[in-house]
């Protein structure tokens, strides 16, 4: 487990076992895959904007879904999974609109990420995209 979703992170550097807030490693992994999914959705929203299409529901959804990663807001695996699945569905719908508009794009990284079918699979994917796995250019 690695988690630094909140201001309560151990020593300001992140929790590496059950969080100070009571979050489980499973919830932390689901929150990580949710954030990764939202990055992909955001990339799709930017591409949609450039192609002249848009979906006004994307911004509010991203805000709501990100809020679910804050301290003591929602550690329920089913609810986190629902947000993850909704992000993937919204991304797919946007990508379909972009294709229909004739715009080209590269499905790599978060934009092309395919979700696992089970909560356990999502947890495993979350462990692979935890922020600790990203190369850091600086401490910030």
Task: List the main descriptive attributes of the protein structure presented here.
140 residues; mainly alpha; 5 helices; elongated
What's this, in brief?
The chain has 140 residues and is mainly alpha-helical. The protein is built from five helices and no strands.
How would you characterize the overall build of this protein?
- With 140 residues, the protein is mainly α.
- Helices cover 53% and strands 0% of the residues.
- It has helices at 25-50, 58-67, 77-100, 109-112, 119-128.
- α2 (58-67) packs antiparallel against α3 (77-100).
- The longest helix is centred in the N-terminal third of the chain and has 26 residues, at 25-50.
- It is elongated.
- It starts with 24 loop residues before the first helix and ends in a 12-residue tail after the last helix.
- The model has no long low-confidence stretch (mean pLDDT 83).
Give the class from helix and strand content and strand pairing.
mainly alpha
List the uncertain runs: none
Helix content: 40-55%
Number of strands: 0
Classify the beta-strand content into a percent band: under 5%
Characterize the largest beta sheet: strand count, sense, and whether it forms a barrel: none
Mean pLDDT score, rounded?
A: 83
**What string gives the helices and strands in order?**
HHHHH
Straight-line N-to-C gap: 21 Å
Shape: elongated
Radius of gyration: 16 Å
Number of helices: 5
